[in-house]
TrEMBL record:
InterPro entries: Osteopetrosis-assoc_TM_1. The keyword Signal applies. One of its GO terms (cellular component) is cytosol. This is Osteoclastosis associated transmembrane protein 1. Keywords: Membrane, Signal, Transmembrane, Transmembrane helix. PANTHER family: OSTEOPETROSIS ASSOCIATED TRANSMEMBRANE PROTEIN 1 (PTHR15644), OSTEOPETROSIS-ASSOCIATED TRANSMEMBRANE PROTEIN 1 (PTHR15644:SF2). The chain crosses the membrane at residues 262-284. Residues 1-25 form the signal peptide. It comes from Xiphophorus maculatus.
């Protein structure tokens, strides 16, 4: 029972600080401050007005007093059975969702595996946070979500909701969140073909692999690029493509002549030659002028340049 003694000591220290530090805390009763030992001093006035059940703090209490304090609130005061049930359900589904998420972290299967879990969790959270009234005309929103400074349920749900939003899973699953949508299924089929091909040829010399899996890989890559443009990607697909690309170019050291590099090279080399073209043309231009001044009739091969000059002058 050393734990209880420790708790009691802590309680005494807190009470001392509490009554020494705050003159206006005289009205705060023992039960009040004991039930909220970690409450910030700035919040105490709110807490002290809520419940004043036991009269004064008695120093010589036995350890069970601590436990009694925790259950001394009449629980029908503000927290109904309906809300308790909602809270229990929330906890159950929260645990289920987290249990799904953690194994789905690597390789990422968050959207494929855990969308139904998110769906049921958000359903119960919606019931908690909505203004809808329960059987006894009570709303659980205020009592569960914002009765205290910590707002635990709100924080817990917020962190999982952030994960869900960051994963972009909405893009990959059906609207009722039951499973992958058709675009995703098609992508997964191509992915399966590519990986199956890799598996088949991965032994030994990789030249064969590069040759035989090129079409499958290219098809997958093109589909992915298209989906990227359409913004229909989610973390599962991004991660799988990331890994496939890494396998292809790093592990197997294959290369793919990428079409988009050809225009890039063309444009860059054109840019490189632009200064040369500029100086050349200005040189020709001045040369032209000289010739025109001296022998205007002989400059037939440069008619186009002359035309321009004519228009300018
Ligand atoms: C204590 O509470 C009573 C009634 O609730 C009030 O009249 C009194 O001013 C309070 N005392 C302090 C120090 O806040
Ligand atoms: C949430 O509310 C809807 C509509 O009232 C209801 O059908 C559903 O059963 C509720 N879900 C939970 C988990 O209470
Ligand atoms: C709930 O409220 C409605 C209308 O406000 C009322 O008709 C009904 O009797 C109330 N039910 C309970 C259980 O208080
Ligand atoms: C997805 O595919 C299924 C079966 O091929 C089809 O019945 C369904 O209509 C498709 N859904 C969409 C949105 O295209
Ligand atoms: C590809 O799909 C087949 C049949 O659905 C399955 O047996 C196989 O394990 C899959 N391969 C990979 C690499 O997922
Ligand atoms: C792989 O095999 C090809 C012929 O099948 C050969 O030309 C090449 O040198 C081999 N490469 C390596 C790294 O063994
Ligand atoms: C992108 O969207 C267009 C038009 O909505 C569609 O025709 C095309 O198939 C989509 N591409 C992919 C890769 O989903
Ligand atoms: C792809 O992999 C790299 C390194 O492994 C990582 O930094 C990057 O965030 C990944 N990209 C995506 C979209 O997951």
């Amino acid at each position: 029972m050393s734990l209880h003694r420790y708790n009691l000591g802590l309680l005494l220290i807190i009470l001392n600080i509490y009554s020494l530090g705050l003159i206006d805390a005289l009205n705060a009763t023992a039960s009040d401050s004991a039930a909220n030992p970690l409450q910030a001093p700035s919040d105490h006035s709110h807490g002290s007005s809520a419940v004043v059940s036991s009269p004064v703090y008695k120093p010589a209490v036995d350890s069970s007093y601590w436990i009694n304090l925790l259950s001394s609130f009449p629980d029908d005061l503000e927290f109904s059975e309906y809300c308790t049930e909602l809270l229990r359900l929330f906890g159950q589904r929260y645990v289920a969702f987290v249990n799904c998420l953690v194994p789905a972290a690597r390789p990422v299967r968050v959207c494929q595996n855990c969308s139904p879990g998110y769906s049921s969790l958000s359903e119960v959270f919606l019931n908690i946070s909505s203004d809808k009234l329960g059987p006894a005309n009570e709303s659980c929103r205020d009592s569960i979500l914002r009765s205290d400074r910590l707002m635990l349920v709100f924080l817990l749900y917020g962190s999982l909701d952030t994960i869900w939003k960051k994963s972009n899973c909405k893009q990959c699953v059906t609207t009722d969140l039951t499973g992958p949508n058709n675009d995703t299924l098609y992508y997964l089929t191509l992915l399966n073909q590519t990986i199956t091909c890799f598996e088949k040829y991965k032994e030994g010399n990789h030249t064969e692999l590069c040759k035989n899996c090129k079409n499958a890989y290219k098809g997958l890559n093109d589909l992915y690029s298209g989906m990227e443009k359409n913004s229909t990607l989610c973390i599962d697909l991004e991660d799988s493509m990331n890994m496939t690309r890494k396998l292809w170019s790093k592990n197997f050291a294959c290369s793919l002549p990428r079409e988009e590099t050809i225009p890039v090279i063309a444009v860059s080399s054109f840019m490189l030659f632009l200064p040369i073209i500029f100086y050349l043309s200005s040189f020709l231009h001045s040369e032209q002028k000289k010739r025109k001044l001296i022998h205007p009739k002989r400059a037939k091969s440069h008619t186009s340049l002359m035309n321009i000059q004519d228009k300018q002058s």
